[in-house]
Design brief:
By secondary structure, the chain is mainly α. It has one domain. The protein is built from 12 helices and no strands. It has helices at about 1-15, 15-40, 40-45, 50-60, 65-95, 100-105, 110-140, 150-170, 170-180, 185-205, 215-220, 230-250. α9 packs across α10 and α9 runs parallel beside α12.
Amino acid sequence: MSAAGWAEVLKARRSRLPWVTVLAFTIAAAFGGLVMFILQDLSRARSLGLLGAKAALAGGTADWPAYFTLLAQTVAVGGALIFGLVVVWTFGREFSQDTVKDLLALPTSRPTIVAAKFAVTAGWCLLLVLYTYLLGLLAGTAIHLDRWSVATAVDGLVNLLLTAAMTFALVTPFALAASAGRGYLAGVGVMFLVFFLAQVVALLGYGRYFPWSVPALFAESTGADRPGVLGYVLVATAGLAGALGTAAWWTYADQDR
């Protein structure tokens, strides 16, 4: 497992994708800080040429709880796309670059290879979330947001990590799609289809019954407004099914090319 994990880390380190994902989350955190800056003083935003009127339509207040909620929403929606791309790349690259048979010829079991890939992608996504949180702290401090407290910061981090955990669990089926489709295209196609359905189902009011809508609902709500136990069970079921299905496919599928 350690050798397989190190190999996956080496592949990621030599790729440009980690830097792309870091840039994406940097932009997301900076945009959240910009929204808070606009909401602090709309007249100031207008004088600076910012979109104060559109920011006002977004609602909300410019304080630390609102900023942490916005970061969690970013991870639930935009982060799902980035996490999905990371997982699709990690599994699909072996087929697109014709390295899968070389990989399977090594004295390492196929479930171990799959577990190593999921472990590295999970660690990768966790680092991205922590990086986003630290950027959020820096941005919020720079613009002097109100209602700061240690409890608020801890609560914001916990919500961010819970949202990220659910989001990552829901991208594991994309690994199965990339593996069964033997490349990136199938994984990306399934990912965009699921995200489209998540938006539609949420608009219809049934988001808590569709796993891929649950993280966004969790991020933007509190207390009793959050999805029920059924929503969390569906998320766990989808994540487990994706991971076990991917391991089963790698174990039993015929690699004939």
